[in-house]
Amino acid sequence: METYHKIQTLFKRHQDGPKKGKMIRGQWTTPALEFLAGCQWDWTEKVDGTNWRINFHRIQDHLTVKMAGRTDNADLPKPLKAKLEDMFPQSPMGSGANATVGLWMVDNDLTDVTLYGEGYGPKIQNGGLYSDEQNFVLFDVKIGDFWLERENVADVGAKLGLDVVPSIGQGTLFEAIEVVETGLTWDSNGRMKNWGGSINGKRRFAGLKSTWGDFEAEGIVARPLTPLFDRKGDRIITKIKAVDFK
Question: pTM value?
């Protein structure tokens, strides 16, 4: 089962000195990000959790289910693992929860599907802010050699009963930085609105409010509206983490 690729940060980092690890604004990590920065990107909320993969491999009427973390040897949170194994058990394709997966794959002539998502909840990073129990949210789907577009990922999530990472909006990378820094975003009429939480009229935090509750989102994952790949064949995708823009 293929591991999930690296998501590039926007800017390079200081390699030594007192600012080691800090971003160098304006020094883009790749030429592609610099070239496309002013184009329209699709933004989803970045979740503070642990990477998780679920692979379905079908040979005729037999379905194999495999699960793993970021690497094949990664330790998996036991409550979340048990929950997903209950949802997608190792059982014949036509029985239990796997009937839905199996029929969907047969109807669409699919033999190899990998779901990529984030496990979150108590004892997973800062995931206790999101929920009082461990859960899984889908952010990408690969079928064979093809990555699905955002609307198709949402469709797969709906078919399989999985939550999908929330949409934050669309805009340039410069606007995404502003949203993560200030909590500002735009409504359907193009007017700015404030997503930051407040108590008694005072800002509770400066950045983007999470879709899950009254706390700051970890950041934004951005993809070009039209999926693109660089000359090495790598996906063009980036992340804007709140901690990098304090």
Answer: 0.87
